[in-house]
Design brief:
By secondary structure, the chain is an alpha/beta fold. The chain has helices spanning 2-42, 65-78, 130-143, 167-172, 185-192, 203-215, 239-249, 264-276, 287-342, 350-403; strands spanning 55-58, 61-64, 109-116, 124-125, 128-129, 150-156, 175-181, 222-229, 254-260, 280-284. It has ten helices and ten strands.
Length: 404
C-alpha cells in the first residue's frame, strides 16, 4: 500500500513538470503572434536591425560601406575641384632670333630708323655715295631683326633741294617710307629705291614725327629709335629740346644716334642730342664702320629682348605657382566650410561622424601632394628655359666682344 502511494506521488510530480514546460514554450509564441496581429492592425512594421562591418579604402583610409554613400553625396554636391589647381607652366614662346624663326613673341617691340637723305649724303666715300652706304647698312639691319619685331623707316631731306627756295618744302617733307609693322626684306629694299639725297636736315622735326608714330602703339611696347645722320640741324628746330620731349612722352624709348661723318663738330652735336634723349651715340666714317655700328645696335636689341623674355617668363612662372597655391587654399577653405555647414555633426551615426572627416582630410592632402609634385615639375621647366636664354645671351656677348 505504501508503495502504491509513492508511485502516485511520483506520477503527479512528473505531470506537473510537464505542464510547466509546455506552458513556457506555448505562451511566448502566442504573445508574439498577438503582437504581430496588433502591428498589422496599427499599420506599423518592425524592421530588423542590420549591423554591417564591410569597409572599403578611400585615399588610404578605411571607411565603412554604410558611410561611403554619405561621403560620396557630399563630394558630388560640395566637393572642391582640385584638378583646376594643377595647371602646368608652359612657356613655348621663342624670342629674339636664333631660337624659333616663326615665333611672334616680339610683336610688342618697335624699331624705327630715321635716315638722313639731305644733300650732304650725296658725298662719296671710297667712290660710293654716303646715302648708298647708309641704305645698304640700314637694309641689312632692318632685315636682320628677329621675327615678330615691328620695324619702320622715316626719311628726311629727300624733298625739294638744298636751295633756300626749297627750304620750307624740304624741312616739312619728313616721310614714313616703311610703315611701322611686320615688314619683310622685299618691302625694305623696295622702299630704299624710292628716295635720294636732296635737301635740308630737320632732325628736331623728325623726332616729333617719330614720336607720333610710336604713340599709336601700346603703352607696354618696347620702342627703339635710331638716327643715322651726317649733319646737324638746318631747319631751325632744336634737336636737344625735341630729344627731351621724346623721352618725356615715351619714357622707355631707347634713342641711338649714329654719326656718319668725320666732322668733329657734327660728332659733338649729335652726341649731345643723344645724351639729352637718354640714349647712346656711335661714330662711323665709312661703310664697314656704319655696318658695325648698326650690327652693334642689333646685338643690343637682341640682348635686350632676351632680358625682356626672361622677365616675362619669370613673371608667368611666379603667377602660375601662386595661382595653383591660391586655388588649392581657396578650394580647401570652401570645402571645409561646406562640410561644417552640411555634414559635420548632422549624421546620427557616430562612426560616420568620425570616419568621413578622415577621408576628406586624406583627399585634401592627396591633392596638396599632387600640387607640390607639379610645382617641382614646373620648376624644372623654368630652369630649362632660363638656361637656354642664358646661352643665347652668352652667344650675343661673344659676338659683341668680337666686334670690339
Amino acid at each position: 500500500m505504501k508503495r502504491f502511494v509513492k508511485l502516485l506521488i511520483i506520477l503527479a510530480v512528473c505531470f506537473f513538470v510537464l505542464l510547466v514546460s509546455v506552458a513556457v514554450k506555448v505562451i511566448p509564441f502566442r504573445a508574439i503572434n498577438n503582437l504581430r496581429k496588433e502591428e498589422v492592425r496599427s499599420g506599423q512594421k518592425t524592421l530588423p536591425v542590420e549591423i554591417s562591418t564591410e569597409t572599403t579604402t578611400v585615399y588610404g583610409e578605411k571607411i565603412q560601406t554604410k558611410c561611403l554613400n554619405e561621403y560620396n553625396d557630399f563630394i558630388k554636391n560640395h566637393g572642391a575641384d582640385y584638378f583646376k589647381c594643377l595647371v602646368d607652366f608652359d612657356f613655348n614662346e621663342q624670342y629674339c632670333g636664333g631660337l624659333d624663326p616663326n615665333a611672334e613673341g616680339l610683336s610688342n617691340v618697335n624699331i624705327v630708323v630715321i635716315l638722313d637723305a639731305s644733300g650732304s649724303m650725296a658725298e662719296k666715300i671710297d667712290s660710293q655715295a654716303k646715302i648708298d652706304i647708309a641704305k645698304k647698312a640700314v637694309s641689312d639691319f632692318l632685315a636682320g631683326m628677329p621675327q615678330g619685331v615691328r620695324t619702320g623707316l622715316i626719311v628726311y631731306g629727300d624733298k625739294g633741294s638744298n636751295s633756300l627756295a626749297d627750304k620750307n618744302v624740304s624741312c616739312k617733307g619728313i616721310e614714313e617710307v616703311v610703315k611701322l609693322g611686320m615688314n619683310n626684306n622685299k618691302n625694305i629694299i623696295s622702299a630704299m629705291g624710292s628716295f635720294g639725297p636732296k635737301g635740308w636736315t630737320p632732325i628736331a622735326g623728325a623726332f616729333d614725327f617719330a614720336k607720333n608714330v610710336f604713340k599709336g602703339n601700346g603703352s607696354k611696347d618696347k620702342d627703339y629709335l635710331i638716327l643715322v645722320s651726317d649733319g646737324i640741324e638746318s631747319c631751325d628746330g632744336n634737336p636737344l629740346v625735341a630729344a627731351e620731349d621724346l623721352k618725356s612722352e615715351i619714357p622707355d624709348i631707347k634713342l641711338n644716334i649714329i654719326g656718319f661723318t668725320n666732322s668733329s663738330e657734327t660728332h659733338e652735336f649729335l652726341q649731345r642730342v643723344a645724351e639729352r634723349g637718354g640714349g647712346s651715340y656711335l661714330t662711323a666714317n665709312n661703310s664697314s664702320e656704319i655696318s658695325r655700328a648698326l650690327n652693334a645696335e642689333l646685338l643690343l636689341i637682341k640682348k635686350d629682348c632676351l632680358y625682356v623674355t626672361f622677365y616675362q617668363m619669370s613673371s608667368r612662372y611666379n603667377a602660375n605657382y601662386l595661382s595653383n597655391l591660391n586655388c588649392w587654399l581657396n578650394s580647401f577653405q570652401k570645402e571645409s566650410d561646406d562640410f561644417t555647414k552640411v555634414l559635420s555633426g548632422k549624421s546620427t551615426d557616430e562612426e560616420c561622424n568620425l570616419e568621413i572627416p578622415k577621408i576628406l582630410r586624406a583627399r585634401q592632402n592627396d591633392f596638396w601632394y599632387k600640387k607640390e609634385e607639379l610645382a617641382d615639375k614646373n620648376s624644372q621647366t623654368y630652369k630649362k628655359v632660363e638656361s637656354d636664354l642664358n646661352d643665347q645671351v652668352k652667344i650675343i656677348e661673344d659676338l659683341q666682344n668680337r666686334n670690339h
